[in-house]
Design brief:
- This protein is of the alpha+beta class and 297 residues long.
- It contains 7 helices and 13 strands.
- A 6-stranded mixed β-barrel has the order 2-3-10-4-7-6.
- The longest helix has 19 residues.
- About 15% of the residues have low confidence.
Length: 297
């Protein structure tokens, strides 16, 4: 029987896997990963990505570097328009141009008679025009914008009970806490220290068991949070298709079980984020990427 420790065995296995793993050399940032996972590449505009693909001779269809676009055997194309290019290279410029085309003149009105003739229109001064525009824009933004807060889904354990929990990342909260409704529903172990109750837990990544953190959460009997404010279209997820999402259903309104405050926040958030114009921001954590920020739809 081998006297090799479990940790030593895992290290040997990991080393063997690393040797067998293909060395994807990224020509954009010079690191070791496929182009579709490159932070620098993902942070570029669509036109910037296209230029990078052409400059470094990547395949436009699958982003591989071993062959040209004309010899690509991949049957998958763009998941948005189904053309022969990668989804990360999809541009909505054509749709924008169609939206900007002037509408066809309405010929239903008799010649020589304007559509507004016969209607009573209030006088609009420059000051009232600015006021109306401001009110209209503010109303539009309120009705068509949902602000996402960063959420993650993790495995939790108190030594006896194992489950999953949805957590909200809130660096503005000084104390991390857990819903009493949640602790009671799965019978988690709690410690009573008058006048408070505490819940010791281990939070573990759903993608890597070695990424975990021990926490002490305050039990909150009045915590009742659901986020986002309303469900978003499912296609918002396609904007982050190449990221390992900490909460794959971040766009669906759902209950928050745990609030991670400033006492834990800095221990689980990595430096760096991915920000693209018109899209929410992706925040890197030890549990995966969390999506937050305004989403206009």
């Amino acid at each position: 029987m081998s006297n090799r420790s479990p940790s030593r065995a895992r290290s040997v296995i990991r080393s063997s896997v690393e040797k067998q793993r293909p060395a994807y050399s990224c020509h954009v940032c010079k690191s070791r990963h496929p182009l579709r996972l490159c932070r620098k590449f993902l942070g570029m505009s669509i036109s910037g990505r296209v230029s990078a693909v052409e400059k470094y001779k990547y395949c436009r269809n699958c982003l591989a570097h071993e062959h040209s676009h004309g010899s690509c055997f991949s049957s998958q194309g763009c998941k948005k328009c189904h053309k022969r290019h990668h989804t990360l290279l999809h541009s909505s410029a054509e749709r924008t141009q169609r939206q900007r085309r002037p509408q066809t003149e309405d010929r239903s009105q008799p010649e020589g008679r304007s559509q507004s003739e016969g209607r009573s229109c209030p006088e609009v001064t420059p000051s009232t025009s600015r006021s109306i525009s401001h009110q209209t824009l503010s109303s539009f933004m309120r009705q068509n914008t949902v602000v996402l807060v960063p959420t993650i889904v993790v495995y939790i354990s108190d030594g006896k009970i194992q489950s999953t929990a949805r957590c909200l990342l809130d660096s503005g909260s000084t104390i991390s806490r857990i819903s009493k409704r949640f602790t009671d529903s799965i019978k988690l172990t709690t410690l009573t220290l008058d006048p408070e109750s505490l819940c010791p837990l281990t939070l573990t990544s759903r993608f890597d068991a070695e990424r975990h953190i021990d926490v002490m959460l305050r039990v909150n009997s009045r915590m009742n949070i659901k986020t986002p404010s309303k469900n978003l279209p499912t296609d918002v997820k396609e904007n982050f298709i190449n990221l390992c999402l900490a909460d794959s259903n971040f766009f669906e309104r759902s209950t928050v079980d745990i609030i991670i405050g400033a006492d834990i926040y800095t221990k689980i958030v990595f430096d760096g984020s991915i920000t693209r114009p018109g899209l929410p921001t992706a925040l890197n954590t030890i549990f995966g990427w969390a999506i937050y920020g305004p989403h206009l739809f």
